[in-house]
Design brief:
The complex is a heterodimer. By secondary structure, chain A is mainly alpha-helical. Chain A has a domain at about 15-250. Chain A has helices at about 5-10, 15-35, 40-65, 75-90, 95-115, 120-140, 145, 165-190, 190-200, 205-210, 215-240, 250-265, 270-290, 295-315, 320-330, and strands at about 155, 240-245. By secondary structure, chain B is mainly alpha-helical. The longest helix of chain B has about 30 residues, at about 1-30. Chain B has one domain (about 20-120, about 140-245). Chain B has 11 helices and 2 strands; from the N terminus they run ααααββααααααα. Classes of the chains: A mainly alpha, B mainly alpha. At the A-B interface, α6, α12 and α14 of A face α4, α9 and α11 of B.
């Protein structure tokens, strides 16, 4: 018996909370120690990764489990970030409540966008969310007195307890929220609702025959996903310290999509790879363009081009992403005829 | 009242452009049931090619025709290289690939030409026409837009309705397998459909460029407005694209005129949602039967 077989033979408990909570607690403990060891810039980046993971988990739940697509999750992040900043600047409320409000307002926006529920699929939803991604920044620009215009609004990090530095404390908050969201989403996907999401994804007619309210299920998945994005945006705004429209362009929404596909659509652990890519890709592309002497003008766009190319190549050649590849190495090979697409294909239908 | 007339005229001119892009989306959707989200960016890229040609001294009309040909080639190549391998997979995969292409096109344009907004020359004067003693918000260039778009629409209709090639294309859109059994060379016709859409996209790019600040992202909003127009028209019908374009153009122009241009995208989003809720199949399509 080789090592991999032994590790594989260790079975996690079947009860969802018992299965997910210990993993999250161990990860949290390890990351807590790690944040105390890293340099302050690296700690800051880990925090950004955690913020992106929260948003990506929402997107992965939407696309992987429910088969819907969003090209507007960057805009939901903006909704969350602006909510957070507005509450911080105008009220003296509790930090946790502000985070919850950011998620809640973004989820409400998702609910409104989900009104044409029966058309929440494929190209219709893609086009609608694309329009949403373009509409949100222009709305924020329309009322500079409220949303701060180009300058944006500032956010403040809560005071750190004890000997922790501000970066360490912020990053620990971000990691804690990311772990809580991952456990909650993992449990949700394990529950009746998760099964309903997948049933609707695989075959809407069969799902409705099985007693699932298809439209309500889709809208719920969309709102939960938007709420995650809003929470991620609020967490990210704490890292940057400022919320303005330039931070949430259409390209952010598309980079989120690319990070999700690369990480492994539908997986939660894969979103960790996605978050790492989102934070480090700009750095890598900067060093790449200086290696090839591409000049400052090209440099700004290289990350975008790479994200786009990788998105296309991954979709055609490796639709299961990094986590899919790791699972394959680990031995979870799909049976012949199964798998092979990022977004699981429903049974062929007759037009 | 004169403001209302100006907004209406402006809405008609913009609506024709949205209709062009809607037509491009419809041509592709009919043939392959895919929305090409890179259509606007492709038009942007070909317009930048026109910009380069013009700055090297090529005449406007030569550049115009050349760029339409390039648009055709790009559309056909996209179908052959990127879209055909995805046939039979989930409908989300082509959405993601065309979005990837959108980003690549915008990144390329930004890397080569920079982020600065430029001016793009118009074929005709953009000063408003004079009717009696007043100047209306409709220029010679707007008249050209109207004629160019109507000519494109008419050409498409004639192609689909009165030629053997159009009949084959309709057969391919109706059912690939049956068309293939009848001896239609389906692959070439699919590429051709994407190529025609590429012409429409390039035309839209050339017509929009003089009217806004011309940079890598200037087609983003045009694409989503064109999408709104196509959905209003039903995604399957060229006539629907024209009517949808006019409806979208007028609504967006009124929203921009009376409430401020910053709210135009939000107005379009509201219009799209209302259209999807009130008549999800669009004005010119019948609801498809679903078979289990």
């Amino acid at each position: 018996m080789d090592a991999a077989t032994i590790v594989r033979s260790v079975r996690l408990p079947r009860q969802p909370l018992l299965r997910h909570l210990p993993v999250a607690l161990v990860a949290g403990a390890v990351l807590y120690v790690v944040t105390l060891r890293l340099s302050s810039y690296n700690v800051y980046q880990v925090g950004e990764i955690a913020a992106y993971i929260v948003a990506l988990v929402g997107l992965s739940l939407l696309t992987g489990a429910n088969g819907q697509i969003s090209l507007g999750h960057g805009a939901f992040m903006a909704v969350g970030a602006y909510t957070m900043a507005l509450l911080m600047n105008h009220t003296q409320s509790n930090f946790i409540l502000e985070l919850a409000a950011a998620a809640g307002v973004a989820a409400a926006a998702g609910l409104v966008l989900g009104l044409p529920a029966t058309r929440l699929k494929g190209p219709y939803l893609a086009g609608m969310t694309l329009l949403f991604a373009l509409a949100v920044p222009s709305v924020a620009d329309k009322w500079p007195a409220t949303f701060g215009g180009d300058q944006g609004l500032t956010t403040t990090v809560p005071t750190a307890p004890g000997s922790l530095s501000a970066e360490e404390w912020l990053t620990q908050i971000q990691i804690a929220v990311a772990l809580v969201v991952m456990v909650l989403v993992a449990n949700l996907l394990w529950s009746r609702f998760g099964r309903a999401f997948r049933a609707v994804r695989d075959d809407e007619i069969a799902a409705s025959l099985a007693g699932i309210h298809v439209a309500r299920t889709k809208v719920m998945a969309f709102a939960i996903s938007a709420g995650c994005a809003g929470l991620g945006g609020a967490l990210l705004s704490l890292s940057t310290g400022v919320v303005n429209t330039g931070e949430f362009p259409l390209t952010l929404s598309i980079q989120l999509l690319a990070a999700m596909v690369l990480g492994g659509t539908g997986t939660l652990i894969g979103m960790v790879w996605g978050g790492i890519l989102l934070v480090y890709m700009p750095q890598w592309s900067t060093s790449l363009s200086s290696d090839f002497n591409l000049g400052a003008g090209a440099n700004a766009y290289l990350a975008t081009i790479i994200f786009g190319l990788v998105l296309i190549v991954a979709m055609i050649a490796a639709p299961n992403g990094i986590q899919g590849g790791l699972r394959w190495l680990w031995g979870h090979r799909p049976r012949p005829g199964g798998g092979g697409t990022a977004v699981p294909v429903p049974a062929p239908t007759v037009d | 009242m004169s403001l209302f007339i100006d907004y209406t005229l402006n809405g008609i001119a913009n609506g024709m452009i949205y209709a062009t892009l809607a037509l491009a989306l419809v041509l592709i959707y009919r043939a392959t049931k895919i929305i090409n989200f890179a259509q606007g960016a492709a038009g942007m890229l070909t317009t930048f090619i026109a910009f380069s040609l013009l700055s090297r001294g090529l005449g406007y009309w030569w550049a115009f025709v050349l760029v339409l040909v390039i648009g055709f080639a790009m559309g056909a190549a996209t179908e052959r290289i990127l879209i055909r391998p995805l046939h039979g997979r989930s409908e989300l995969n082509p959405v993601i690939v065309t979005i990837g292409l959108l980003v690549v096109f915008e990144g390329l344009a930004g890397a080569i030409y920079g982020n600065a907004s430029r001016g793009f020359p118009a074929a005709f004067s953009q000063a408003g026409l004079r009717v009696g003693n007043t100047t209306v918000a409709f220029s010679h260039f707007d008249v050209f837009i109207l004629i160019a778009v109507l000519a494109l629409m008419a050409g498409t209709l004639v192609l689909f309705r009165y030629t053997a090639l159009g009949l084959r294309m309709r057969a391919t859109a109706f059912s690939r397998e049956i068309a293939r059994l009848l001896g239609v060379r389906v692959g070439i016709l699919l590429s051709l459909g994407w190529g025609l859409a590429g012409i429409a996209g390039s035309l839209a790019g050339l017509l929009v460029a003089p009217t806004r600040s011309f940079g890598p992202y200037y087609m983003d909003l045009i694409l989503v407005y064109g999408f709104t127009a196509a959905v209003i028209g039903g995604l399957e019908s060229p006539v629907g694209a024209l009517v949808g374009g006019l409806i979208a153009g007028l609504c967006i122009s009124y929203v921009g005129g009376y409430l401020g241009s910053g709210l135009e995208p939000l107005g379009a989003l509201a219009l799209l949602m209302v259209a999807l809720m009130a008549r999800p199949e669009g004005i010119f399509s019948r609801p498809p039967a679903r078979r289990v």
